[in-house]
Write a structure and sequence with these properties.
The chain is α/β, with parallel strands linked by helices and 377 residues long. It is built from 15 helices and 16 strands. Bound molecules: nicotinamide-adenine-dinucleotide (NAD). Nicotinamide-adenine-dinucleotide binds next to helix 1, strand 2, helix 7, strand 5 and strand 10.
């Protein structure tokens, strides 16, 4: 059980995982189509993650939407870690068919091959996302635990950014555990939920072990600085390095659970190696809440930049207000313990990003696209 295929293995999480697994004695291959928005137009020259991969890792350049590429990749493998995915929440709201084809279609094709061809795969690990929880869980004094649906443009445009729920005057935000209701409010989140359903149902039916991880907001060295749709830490960093002011949506008080890449790799390997993890879903996060405005301030400070931070009151459809993971299950079953504090992790990220060649930020143009489609106001 030591031959591992990582789909999306040239990406941010995949490259860290691949390098760690090879150091631990696994035989590692990856299947990746080297998406230009993630790796740039000349990945062999400019993709930090592709260039960081250990030379012992076998590469297959191809797509999870291609039967041939998948069949070639899964030959002689014991474990598949399925990371290949379109990953932008905002982009998913207008590239619906691409997100469904790659995320849902690619996963279905992979499973189809596992059902219908001869292979040696014994375990499938899936990277899911906190996006499956949508706005998450709240405590209402009258009604107990409630799950608000997406916020509507009418209230958002009045500057009312916190979620509401009928019949509840005060809502207290609660961390989501794995049994919390799934309530995705973006196309990306829907595709991640579908991936989970496909993997858990099909693997169970054909006797292949499966483990699913719901990652929170992962950050750290290697995160694409060119993709304007993933990772607020890298989006802000790219703007600061280009000496552009930071635009913070809503009132900046929305929060996320930022988890450092090394902690995500640790959690994933704990799940891969622990037989008790089979057939279970685990949140992987830091368990700590950070406000978006505070990230902007910290990055400005760490880069010693004099750009301005503009809180603009605008909002993107598909964005959630708060997210935070309850890590009890991963702690209990896997012995998972996030180790990096956000401040230390952000320092490491800034040190890394400062050494990377600058590319133009595509953030403003991504907002123009969203605006033209009525998804950003
Ligand atoms: N980074 C996060 O904060 C985060 C949070 C939750 C979940 N996840 C999930 O973790 C996984 C990895 O995310 P990441 O942050 O490393 O993203 P990433 O964009 O850095 O990596 C994804 C990789 O998949 C590849 N890819 C995309 N479409 C493909 C296709 N059709 N065929 C083959 N390869 C393809 C890309 O080229 C890229 O190298 C994804 O499934 C994502 O949904 C990430």
């Amino acid at each position: 059980m030591n031959r591992v295929l990582i789909t999306g293995g040239a990406g941010f999480i995949g490259s860290h995982l691949a390098n760690r697994l090879i150091k631990s004695g696994y035989q590692v291959s990856f299947l990746d189509c080297l998406l230009p928005k993630v790796h740039g137009k000349s990945p062999r020259k400019n993709s930090a993650t592709l260039l960081s991969l250990d030379i012992g890792i076998r590469e297959i350049i191809g797509s999870v939407t291609s039967q041939n590429d998948l069949e070639e990749s899964i030959k002689n493998q014991d474990i598949i870690i399925h990371l290949a995915s379109e990953t932008g929440t905002g982009e998913s709201m207008y590239e619906t068919s691409t997100y469904a084809n790659v995320n849902v279609g690619g996963t279905a094709l992979l499973l189809d091959i596992l059902i219908n061809t001869k292979h040696s795969v014994k375990k499938v690990i899936l990277a899911s996302s906190r996006a499956v929880y949508g706005e998450g869980k709240y405590l209402c004094e009258n009604l107990g635990e409630v799950y608000p649906t997406s916020r509507c443009s009418e209230t958002l445009s009045r500057g009312e950014f916190e979620v509401s729920y009928p019949g509840c005057a005060d809502l207290e935000f609660l961390p989501s555990d794995e049994n919390s209701r799934l309530n995705p409010i973006s196309v990306y989140g829907i595709t991640k939920q579908n991936q989970e359903q496909l993997v858990s149902t099909v693997c169970k039916s054909i006797g292949i072990d499966w483990v699913i991880f719901r990652y929170q907001n992962v950050y750290g060295p290697g995160q694409s600085l060119s993709n304007p749709y993933t990772g607020i830490v890298s989006v802000f960093t790219s703007l600061i390095r280009n000496n552009q002011d930071l635009t913070v949506f809503e009132d900046g008080r929305g929060t996320r659970d930022f988890v450092y890449i090394d902690d995500v790799v640790n959690g994933t390997i704990l799940g891969l190696e622990n037989s008790e993890a089979a057939g279970q879903i685990f949140n992987i996060g830091s368990g700590e809440s950070t406000r978006i405005i505070d990230i902007a301030k910290l990055l400005k400070e760490y880069f010693a930049s004099d750009i301005s931070i503009n809180v603009n009151g605008k909002y993107r459809m598909g964005d959630i207000r708060h997210s935070l993971a309850d890590l009890s299950l991963a702690k209990k079953v896997l012995g998972f313990k996030p180790e990096k504090s956000f401040k230390d992790g952000l320092r490491d990220f800034v040190d890394w990003a400062s050494k990377i060649e600058k590319t133009e930020s595509a953030f403003e143009s991504s907002l123009s696209i969203l605006e033209s489609k009525g998804l950003f106001s």
